[in-house]
């Protein structure tokens, strides 16, 4: 039986989030302790646990068909690799930081400076786009320490909360790239394997859509129903059902979580009552 081979990070937060979205997509993984390869008993898939930085080359060589990987790693090591889906988790940014006591007014201040980074291709592209010449020091490991030991004037590294920069007396001054986890595809994926990929994408999209939405039920007086329906951004149109109490209806709809509170406030002002909000497990469109 043809199976799709997926690579995910061997350990860490991206590993956990990757396994979680596969689980939410209905895919079970037979995963023993310290295994480097595992199979799914209910979906044609094999999972390879690999070092994050090695995954682009495994995709390029066709060792795996797809991978869940940070977009920042693809920009650095795999710009030729197709992104099939952005997954919305493990969000971070690749940023420039300098010591807190160092003056910084614009990118021109980077000219002639020593920059330490684990992302030389990303940094070089940024410098070239902005016409800046600087001295790059490629470091693997803890880049943040470089200014403190006199090795560099600035660093470029991954930033999530910024707490690591703060602990090392650094301040973020430029964002080179915003990143999130993506589903990447090998250039050599076979047509029959791509069919399995499309099944997987369908499931993942249903999960992601559900995460972005809330199911809302409310009671509405019939004399205010038209105004309430105007406010609802349902998938097609809201469901309206008569209540046992004359002159009232029950309205069911889906609201995007990004605009949820604004819509709820308007619905209350328009006369909606008894508003009930439920999470959505999957949304199949």
Please give the number of β-strands.
Answer: 15
Name the strands of the widest sheet in spatial order. Answer: 2-3-1-4-11-5
Shape: flat
How would a textbook summarize the main sheet? 6 strands, mixed
Instruction: Give me the oligomer status.
Output: single chain
- Mean pLDDT score: 91
Beta-strand content estimate: 25-35%
Provide a count of the helices.
8
The computed structural class is alpha/beta
Helix content: 25-40%
Straight-line distance between termini:
29 Å
| Series of H and E elements | EHEEHEHEEEHEEHEEHEHEEHE
Based on CA atoms alone, the radius of gyration comes out at 24 Å
Low-confidence stretches: none
What does this structure look like?
- The structure is a single chain.
- With 285 residues, this protein is of the alpha/beta class.
- 28% of the residues lie in helices and 32% in strands.
- It has a six-stranded mixed sheet with strand order 2-3-1-4-11-5. The chain has a five-stranded mixed sheet with strand order 8-7-9-6-10.
- α4 (120-129) links the parallel β7 (114-117) and β8 (135-138).
- The chain is flat, with a radius of gyration of 24 Å.
């Amino acid at each position: 039986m043809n199976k799709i081979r997926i690579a995910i990070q061997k350990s860490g937060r991206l590993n956990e989030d990757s396994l979680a979205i596969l689980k939410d997509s209905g895919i079970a993984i037979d995963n023993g302790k310290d295994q480097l390869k595992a199979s799914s008993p209910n979906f044609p898939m094999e999972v390879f646990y690999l070092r994050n930085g090695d995954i682009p080359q495994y995709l390029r060589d066709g060792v795996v068909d797809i991978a869940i990987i940070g977009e920042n790693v693809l920009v650095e090591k795999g710009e030729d690799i197709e992104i099939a889906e952005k997954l919305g988790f493990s969000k971070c940014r690749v940023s420039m930081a300098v010591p807190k006591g160092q003056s910084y007014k614009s990118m021109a201040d980077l000219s002639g400076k020593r920059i330490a980074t684990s992302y030389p291709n990303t940094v070089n592209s940024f410098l070239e786009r902005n016409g800046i010449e600087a001295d790059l020091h490629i470091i693997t490991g803890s880049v943040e320490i470089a200014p403190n030991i006199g090795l560099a004037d600035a660093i470029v590294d991954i930033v999530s909360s910024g707490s690591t920069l703060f602990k090392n007396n650094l301040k973020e001054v430029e964002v080179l790239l915003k990143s999130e986890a993506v589903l990447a595809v090998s250039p050599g994926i076979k047509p029959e394997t791509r069919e399995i990929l499309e099944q997987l994408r369908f499931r993942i999209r249903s999960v992601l859509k559900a995460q972005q939405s809330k199911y809302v039920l409310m009671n509405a007086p019939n004399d205010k129903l038209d105004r309430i329906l105007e406010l609802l951004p349902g998938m097609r149109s809201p469901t309206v059902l008569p209540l046992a109490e004359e002159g009232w209806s029950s309205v069911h709809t889906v609201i995007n979580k990004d605009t949820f509170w604004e819509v709820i406030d308007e619905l209350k002002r328009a006369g909606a009552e008894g508003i009930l909000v439920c999470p959505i497990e999957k949304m199949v469109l």
